[in-house]
Task: inverse folding
């Protein structure tokens, strides 16, 4: 009979460009202190989903800790879709949008305590054009900014800020979209259309303050104004949900159409220029260990 727990760490060695040895060492130490067994899987960037599935089938871990950015979390989420496995987050990516949403602290010690703890959220998972979306996807100015940022040399918030000005000046926003949801179709004009399960962008900007990550719904938010002040506030401060600035649709399924091809991103990853987007709430949930102080509202 299995008397101890098995904890698997899936870690992306290149995420965030940092040395991962301290994370692996702290993980092993923490797990062994509880007399549990630790397993470490380092991602390779190739066939990781299958390798993680094989490891789960072989070792039957009780929990999976994930160290990387949102891309690594998505890889694990896809791998465990049909399993009821708990996960914990040790954020180490250059973008940690999901961890930002749960207010996961910076200290590795605290992260391990939370990730191995017993306070969870059953988080909704969205599917957008065949991709799993963990927190926020969007069409328009932010996706354009991410594309420009990915092609630039300067990382971090300063990189976004520097890219913000040419992005805002050198494009043909606002654009028109047709939004089909809740058995209604309407036409809206905006500079950014977000599909949000979560409240915040990875930068910490609270763009969807009323969204709940476990209510079986997501929000479509159309940001209407093309004002540098408004957009920068959206990225760096709490957004104002003034109806003149943003229109919100709460739904389980949406189709968005645009006559022009518009930049589109999911969870901080630039996907491409799109004219048609279909998003829906899935029946899958991700059980994530989160801080006790986090309230899903
Ligand atoms: N060993 C590896 N070598 C190269 N790429 C890898 C490796 N392991 C994972 N990857 C790639 O890393 C990406 C996921 O990175 P993730 O989002 O977790 O971290 P990140 O630092 O935030 O990355 P990014 O800055 O690219 O968003 C995936 O594209 C995956 O294929």
Result:
């Amino acid at each position: 009979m299995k008397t101890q727990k098995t904890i698997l760490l899936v870690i992306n060695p290149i995420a965030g460009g940092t040395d991962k040895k301290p994370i692996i060492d702290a993980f092993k130490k923490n797990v062994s202190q509880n007399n549990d067994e630790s397993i470490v899987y380092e991602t390779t960037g190739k066939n990781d989903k299958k390798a993680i599935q094989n490891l789960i089938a072989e070792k039957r871990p009780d929990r999976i800790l994930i160290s990387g950015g949102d891309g690594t979390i998505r890889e694990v989420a896809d791998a465990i879709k049909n399993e009821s496995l708990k996960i914990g987050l040790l954020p180490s990516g250059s973008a940690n949008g999901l961890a930002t949403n749960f207010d996961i602290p910076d200290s590795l010690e605290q992260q391990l305590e939370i990730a191995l703890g017993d306070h969870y959220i059953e988080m909704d998972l969205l599917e957008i054009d065949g991709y799993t979306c963990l927190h926020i996807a969007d069409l328009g100015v932010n996706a354009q900014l991410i594309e420009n940022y990915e092609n630039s040399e300067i990382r971090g918030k300063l990189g976004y800020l520097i890219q913000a000005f040419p992005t805002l000046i050198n494009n043909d926003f606002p654009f028109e979209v047709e939004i089909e949801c809740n058995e209604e179709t309407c036409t809206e004009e905006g500079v950014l259309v977000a599909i949000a399960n979560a409240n915040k962008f990875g930068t910490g900007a609270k763009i969807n303050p009323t969204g709940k990550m476990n209510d079986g719904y997501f929000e479509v938010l159309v940001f209407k104004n093309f004002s540098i002040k408004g957009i920068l506030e959206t990225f760096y401060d709490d957004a104002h949900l003034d109806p003149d600035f943003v229109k919100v649709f709460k739904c389980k399924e949406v189709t968005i159409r645009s006559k022009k091809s518009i930049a589109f991103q999911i969870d901080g990853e630039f996907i491409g220029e799109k004219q048609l987007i279909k998003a829906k709430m899935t029946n899958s949930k991700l059980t994530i260990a989160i801080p006790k102080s986090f309230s899903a509202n």
Summary: DSSP finds eight helices and 14 strands in the chain.
